[in-house]
């Protein structure tokens, strides 16, 4: 009995006739989180966690047919018990648990195991089969604590401010940007948001997510007010005309890919901070072991390397799934 199948449209549960994060238009789509590689346009009906609701409408259109659930709430569909559980990736991110005739499968979407103080922390769910990302599924990926990273970010900003320079930090507009904003030391100066990030903030606030409210960059703000401030912008703003209003400035990038030597140089940024909303090598292993799953399906990332480790060292049966999920894109494009 297979509770989950990989089809040309995405991951499919035949018993409930639902798709999880499909990449082609289908009738019924359960969405793990609102990043664009998981929440795509064109579905007849969507189901997600309620913290994803307004962001999905912002990105996909107010007219979408959307039903929402809370964590731990359950729904029965053709005998399949479906429930959502915290993934810790971004606000509203969820693991999808499917139970049918004594068998349980969990589709994790994207996740991280460190509590970011913004998202509901990841909770491992016992299951027979577990679908896991492995974006950073290699031993070289080992994150410092969030506290250490933000100490470095705030020190960088403070130094720039003391020299009369503005600081522009590039981060995904959904999830990472709000995480950064919530942990900045506001005693250093003001913080401003690019329009794409400000709009996302408003959508999350409307759903009850606690995001520090900051002003949006606009033409009415005099250039002198930006002196020594922090501006949070999506990667798409790098090198754009929009950046000229902040001169003189220093740029920084927040991404797990900053762990790789040379990544910052290739993007021509002044600073790189290893801040990811995905689990590192140890986080992936601990999360998977905690599920006690007999079989693990691996999507996007270092699936071959990580799968071999699970098979040979942890003695867990691992299978690679070829999906269209991207995880944290190494090109740092906004998602």
TrEMBL record:
Signal peptide (from-to): none
Its EC number is: 3.1.-.-
Q: Which residues form the Metallo-beta-lactamase domain?
A: 22-115
Q: Name one Pfam family in it.
A: Lactamase_B
One GO MF term on file is: RNA endonuclease activity
Q: What class of enzyme is it?
A: hydrolase
Q: Which InterPro entries match?
A: MBL, Metallo-B-lactamas, RibonucZ/Hydroxyglut_hydro, Xnuc_lig_assoc
Give the organism, scientific name: Aquiflexum gelatinilyticum
Arranged from A to Z, the UniProt key words for this protein are: Exonuclease, Hydrolase, Ligase, Nuclease
Q: What is the protein name given in its UniProt record? A: Ligase-associated DNA damage response exonuclease
């Amino acid at each position: 009995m297979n509770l989950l199948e990989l089809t040309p449209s995405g991951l499919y549960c035949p018993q409930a006739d639902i798709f999880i994060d499909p990449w082609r238009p289908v009738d019924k789509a359960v969405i793990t989180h609102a990043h664009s590689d998981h929440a795509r346009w064109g579905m007849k009906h969507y189901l997600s966690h309620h913290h994803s609701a307004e962001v999905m409408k912002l990105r996909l259109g107010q007219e979408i047919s959307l039903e929402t659930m809370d964590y731990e709430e359950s729904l029965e569909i053709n005998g399949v018990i479906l429930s959502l559980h915290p993934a810790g990736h971004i606000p509203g991110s969820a693991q999808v648990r499917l139970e049918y005739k004594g068998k349980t499968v969990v589709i994790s979407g994207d996740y991280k195991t460190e509590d970011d103080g913004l998202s509901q922390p990841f909770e491992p769910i016992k299951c027979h089969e577990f679908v896991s990302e492995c974006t950073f599924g290699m031993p070289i990926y080992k994150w410092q604590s969030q506290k250490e990273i933000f100490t470095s970010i705030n020190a960088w900003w403070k130094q720039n401010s003391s020299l009369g320079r503005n600081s522009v930090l590039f981060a995904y507009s959904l999830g990472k940007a709000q995480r950064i904003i919530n942990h900045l030391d506001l005693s250093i100066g003001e913080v401003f948001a690019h329009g794409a990030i400000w709009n996302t903030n408003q959508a999350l606030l409307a759903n009850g997510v606690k995001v520090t409210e900051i002003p949006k960059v606009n033409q009415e703000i005099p250039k002198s007010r930006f002196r020594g401030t922090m501006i949070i912008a999506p990667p798409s703003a790098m090198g754009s005309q929009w950046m000229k209003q902040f001169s003189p400035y220093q740029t920084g990038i927040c991404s797990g890919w900053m762990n790789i030597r040379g990544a910052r140089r290739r993007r021509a940024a002044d600073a790189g901070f290893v801040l990811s909303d995905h689990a590192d090598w140890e986080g992936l292993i601990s999360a998977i072991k905690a599920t006690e799953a007999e079989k693990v399906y691996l999507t996007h990332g270092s699936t071959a390397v990580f799968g071999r480790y699970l098979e040979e060292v942890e003695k867990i049966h691992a299978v690679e799934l070829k999906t269209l999920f991207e995880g944290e894109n190494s090109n740092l494009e906004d998602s």
